[in-house]
Specification:
43% of the residues lie in helices and 6% in strands. It has one domain. Strands 1-3-2 form a three-stranded antiparallel beta sheet, with helices on both faces. The chain is mainly alpha-helical. It is globular and about 45 Å long.
Length: 131
C-alpha cells in the first residue's frame, strides 16, 4: 500500500482504494524495503498491509488472473504512472465489508459491520487470490 499512490488515484478519479498485489520468492524478505529501494511505481512510501506464506502459489500471473476475475484491475495502458504494472487493483470497501459480514453469518455468528483496517483489506485480497 502506498498513500501517495492512493492520493494519486483519488486525484485522477480512479479511487483512493487502489492496492498493489504481488508475490515474493523469499518469505523473510522485507517487502516494503525492497519496493521502496526500487522506487516501485515511482513511490517510496510502500507499506505491507498483509502477507502470507503460500507454497502452492508461485506464479504471480496466476494470482493476478485469479484476482482479476473478482476485482477491477487498473489498466496501465490508460495510466502511464503505473509504468505497465498489471498488479494494481481497485477495491470497493463495501465489497470488503460484505465479505466479512457474510463470513460471520456463515460461521453462525451475529454479523457486525466493523471499521475496515488496512490488514482487513490485505487479507481480503489474499483470500480472493487463493480462491
Amino acid at each position: 500500500m502506498s498513500k501517495t499512490l492512493q492520493e494519486w488515484g483519488s486525484d485522477i478519479g480512479i479511487s483512493k482504494h487502489i492496492y498493489k498485489v504481488g508475490l515474493m520468492d523469499d518469505p523473510k524478505a522485507d517487502v516494503a524495503k525492497v519496493m521502496n529501494d526500487a522506487s516501485a511505481l515511482g513511490q517510496v512510501d510502500w507499506k505491507v498491509i498483509a502477507k502470507r506464506e503460500v507454497p502452492e502459489l508461485n506464479d504471480e500471473d496466476e494470482v493476478l488472473a485469479r484476482l482479476a476475475l473478482r476485482l477491477k484491475l487498473v489498466d496501465p495502458t490508460y495510466y502511464p504512472k503505473l509504468k505497465g504494472t498489471r498488479s494494481v487493483f481497485k477495491l470497493n470497501p463495501f465489497d470488503v465489508d460484505s465479505h466479512y459480514v457474510m463470513k460471520q453469518a456463515l460461521a453462525g455468528e451475529q454479523p457486525k459491520v466493523k471499521k475496515l483496517k488496512p490488514v482487513d483489506i490485505g487479507n481480503y485480497l489474499i483470500e480472493n487470490a487463493l480462491k
